[in-house]
Amino acid sequence: SLNEVPVGVAGELYLGGVNLARGYLKRAALTAERFIAAANGSRLYRTGDLVRWNNDGQLEYLGRIDHQVKVRGFRIELGEIEAGLQGQPEVREAVVVANEGPAGTRLVAYVSGNAGQVIDTAALKQKLGEALPDYMVPSAIVELEALPLNANGKVDRKALPVPAITSDKPYEAPQGPIAETIAAIWAEVLQMEKVGIHDNFFDLGGHSLLLVRVHRLLEDRLRTSVALVQLFKYPTVGSLAQWMERGAAAPTASSPTAGDDRALRQRAALLQRRKSAERVN
Q1: Torsion of CA 140, 93, 87, 56, to 10 degrees
Q2: Judgement on whether residues 51 and 78 belong to the same structural domain of the protein
Q3: What pairing do the DSSP bridges indicate for beta strands 43-53 and 59-64?
Q4: Residues 22, 23, 29, 35: is their CA dihedral positive or negative?
Q5: For the residues of 30-52, what is the DSSP string, one character each?
Q6: Residue 253's domain is classified under what CATH number?
Q7: Same domain, 52 and 67
Q8: Are 139 and 100 spatial neighbours (Cβ–Cβ below 8 Å)?
Q9: Cβ of 255: how many Cβ atoms within 10 Å?
Q10: What residue numbers bound the domain in which 27 lies?
Q11: For a tag on the chain, would you pick the N or C end, based on fewer CB atoms within 10 A?
């Protein structure tokens, strides 16, 4: 059944009216797929375009519905992420793709800047994290002088460079048995050659489900009990090692920090996925 979506919510655009074509010439299968019957007896055409109404009563084009992907159990409209990127003043154009990597499917954004504007990819990722769920924030943002186009003038996704999974911080070797064990586990789970003491698990392409595996390996190899939420709260090798070296003391009352807020959002995403899985089962 078809349901209209409220203002601001993305949905697929359907066209109808007296000027609607009967179908595709000599392509019965495609006609049956794209031209559908509505409840009132009329016919509608599925455009495949992802749009949403804005507060001015205008339709905003977000992308193609066939660019919908599934990451970590969540169905994601890539057009929504692209719209978030293009809404930033320094970004001229943006495209988001889902790449298969050693740690599973990860989102990669490609952006080009407006003239005279400097793109800070770390700040751009932080802005997206404030507006979108954690699982919709790209693992990497790649700045290009211009997005590659095909002969039809559309973005050539196949021509986009595949970014290497590397840290944006200078490598500094972890010191001490706890830090070295944490770094080794991260490198194993993320399938990286090495992980430095200042590297952030999530910035390296890690996510909630991989962190569950890290949690299990940490408890097994360090022979200690660690609350999973602490791995969200201390996402770098150094910060987690320092917390564990202090004896994993009970948290004290303090005002929430940006790191705490991110940890809560990432933990909420994990819990949401678990609830969705329980409903399916």
Answers
A1: -140
A2: no
A3: antiparallel
A4: negative
A5: HHHHHEEE-TTS-EEEEEEEEEE
A6: 1.10.1200.10
A7: no
A8: no
A9: 5
A10: 11-57
A11: N
